[in-house]
Amino acid sequence: MTDLTKFADPLPVPPLLRPGPELTVRLVPAEVRLHSELPPTPLWTYEGSFPGPTIEVRRGRRLRVAWENQLTTPYPAQVGNLPTIDSPPAENSPGIDAAFLNPKAAVLPGWAVTHLHGAVTGGGHDGWTDNAVPAGEAQLSEYPNDQAATALWYHDHAMGITRLNVNAGLAGLYLVRDEEEDQLGLPADEFEVPLVLCDRNLATAADGSLTGQLLFKTVGPLPFSGRYTLVNGRIWPYQQVRARWYRYRVLNASSSRAYRLHLVDENGTRVPDAVWQIGTDSGLLGAPTPLSAQGLNLSPAERADLLIDFRALKGRRLRLVNSAPQPYDGQPIGDADPVGVPDPEHRLSDPEVIEFRVSPDQEPEPFTLPAQLAASYHRLTHDALPEHTHRVVALGRNAAGVFQLWELAEVPDADVPPAGTLQDGLIQIQQGTGPVRTYRRVAADFEDTLNFRVRRDSWEQWTFVNLSVALHPVHLHLIRFQALTRAACDVSSVKDGGTPIGSPVTWDAESPILPSDQGWKDVIKVSPGELVRVAGQFTGATGRFMYHCHILDHEDDGMMRPFTVTPGAVLDLTGDGMPGMPGMPGM
C-alpha cells in the first residue's frame, strides 16, 4: 500500500534560531516521521530537524558558524535507477527492483559542505564544492549579512553528491531582517510561516508496503522526481489558520521539480484576489503584485515571499496545488485553462501540496496591505546600467547527452569559417535582422580553464541561451541580479554541438517579464529555446565562486563552472583573465 492519507497531519514549523555573533550547527543523523501513517524515516539533518532550523539574523550583524559534521551513519536512502524509457512518467513510483540498486551509494560517508545560498560572503566561506569535510570535522564560515532583508537558505554542496546529501535532509531557511522590512509591519511571529517544498520517493518492503526509507531513483536520463510532496518535512500537511493575513516564505528545495502553484477551493476552482507576492529570491519588490491566473512558478532553489488574505474565506478549506507537469519546460498555464491543463498526460497524479483550514471566526486585523514595499528597490534596464561587461553562456548538451554550461567567446569576423561549415563548439546567434555574431565554446566542464575573472564592484550582464531540451534554473553565487530580457529563440539549426555557419540561432521580439519576476534574484529559469539576460553588481566579497544549474542532478553531472572576483588593481597589474565582451545590441 503506497497511498497515504492527504491532509492528515498538521504543518510542522522548523525551530527558530536567533544567534549571537557565533553559532554551532551540527549535522547529525535523525529519525523523523514524514507522515503519521509511515514508520520513522532515517535522515541526515541539521540539528535533528528536517528542514533544519530557521536561522534569523539582522542586517550588518556578522555571524560566524561552525558547521560541525557528526554524520556517522551510512547514507540513509536507497539509490538506484531504471533503464531508459520512451515516455517520461509524471513522477517516480515508490519502490525499486533490487537489481537496480546502486551498492556504491550505500557506503557513502557523511562528507558535506554547507553553502548559504544567496549570501554575500567571501569565497572562502561560500561552501566551495570540493571543500567538504568528513565526520569529526567542522566547516568554519563567516557571513557579514550586509544585504537587504530576504529569505536565503542553506544546503549541502558536496562535489558529485549534492543531490544525494540534500535529498537526505540537509537544507534549511536563513532569514535576514532590516529596518526597511520592519517599517512595513508585515505579519509576524505565528503569522509568518516558512513553507519549504520538496518531493521525495519512498522505498517499499517485500509485501509492497512503505518502509519509510527514502528512495532516490532516477528514470533513465531524467532527473529525480518523487511522488510525495512535503512541506516543512511533512507529506501533504494541513495548516489551521485564522481569518486574517499571513506571510509565507516559500522555498522550492526540490532536486529537480518545478512548481506552478495555485490556491483553489473545495471544488478545485481558483481563488482570486487572495494571494499577493511581495518578494523574490533576494529581497522585497517595490510594490505588491497579485498572484496571476498563471500561478506562482518556482523552479528549484527559487523563493517567493507571499501574503495570503484569509479574511473573506472564513470556515473554508483551501489548497495549494501544483499544475506543473513533470517534466516541466517552464511554459505558463493559460489564463482560461483549468488547473492541470495543458499537458494532461504528464499531470501529476497527486498535485496537492497543502490544505489551509480557515477558522470560522472573524477577528480584528492589524495589517493593511501597503501600496509600496521596498523604497530601495529599483528596476534595472540595460540602457541605464553603469559601464558593464557582457558574457554569454549557452546551456547545451554534449554527444553523450550530458547537459553542460558552454562559456562562449566571440570570434572576429575575419576568423569565421565559410558558410555551411559545421564545427563542434562554434555557434552563431542573430537578433532579428541585426548582425550575425559568431562564438566559440571555450569551456564546458567544471575542470576546464577558468575564464570568467570578474572585477570586484563591477557590473556585468550575462546572457544565457538554452540550446537544450530541458528547463535550467541557473544560480550565480555571491550576487543578486535582475532579469532584463526574455526572448524565444529558434534553435532548430543547432546540431552536433554547434550551428552551421550561415544558419544562426535567431531571436526577435522580447517576451514580457511578469511583475512577479522583476525583483532581485539569484536563480533565473531558462526554458528550452529561450534567451535570458540578467545584470548585477559583483560587490561585497572576493574569491572563487560557482555558477550552475540548480537541478541538482544536472549540477552533479558537471553543469557547473567556476568564476572569480578579484580587486581591479590586481587584474590591472597581472593582466590576468578573459575579458568580457563589449556591449552588443541584442546580447
Short characterization:
This protein is mostly beta strands. Helices cover 4% and strands 41% of the residues. The chain contains 5 helices and 37 strands.
How would you portray this structure in words?
The chain has 587 residues and is mainly beta. It folds into two domains: 16-362, Sandwich (Immunoglobulin-like); 388-574, Sandwich (Immunoglobulin-like), CATH 2.60.40. The chain has an eight-stranded mixed β-barrel. Strands 15-14-11-17-22-19-20 form a seven-stranded mixed sheet, with no helix packed on it. Strands 1-4-10-9-7 form a five-stranded mixed sheet.
Question: Low-confidence spans: pLDDT under 50, at least 5 residues?
Answer: 582-586
Proportion of residues in β-strands: 35-45%
Q: Would you report the number of β strands?
A: 37
The domain count comes to 2
Overall shape: it is globular
Kindly state the percentage of residues in helix: under 10%
Radius of gyration: 23 Å
CATH class of the largest domain, named Mainly Beta
Mean pLDDT: 93
- What's the architecture of the largest domain in CATH terms? Sandwich
Cα end-to-end separation: 54 Å
What composes the largest sheet? 8 strands, mixed, barrel
Tell me the CATH superfamily of the largest domain. Answer: Cupredoxins -  blue copper proteins
Identify the strand order in the major beta sheet.
Answer: 25-26-28-27-33-32-35-30
Task: Give the helix/strand class.
Answer: mainly beta
What is the CATH topology descriptor of the largest domain? Immunoglobulin-like
Number of helices: 5
